[in-house]
Amino acid sequence: MIIQLVHIRVKPDAVEAFKAATLDNTRNSRLEPGVAQFALTQQQDDPTRFVIIEAFRDEAAIEAHRQTPHYLRWRDTVTDMMAEPRHAIRAASVDPPDSEW
Asked: What domains sit in the chain, N to C, each tagged with a CATH number?
């Protein structure tokens, strides 16, 4: 299992548009066979900050995701909404174990 925590800060006037575009991506991503979880979170004390929690079964699932129409649409739509470039942290699942995802 490969967990990615994608940190994003958007421009204040783009928060609602960013959420709408990202919901399309997260909901469609959860339908992909190599995705165990795909969730959007918004920071409570700073609504311009988001974290997308992505759980992929393997590297091939990440590569397949990056070719999907919904990801490409999201990437192209939200780029100008970001206040700074997004960055991701990769992690391994400690608990639950991979078999329980």
From this structure: 2-94 (3.30.70.100)
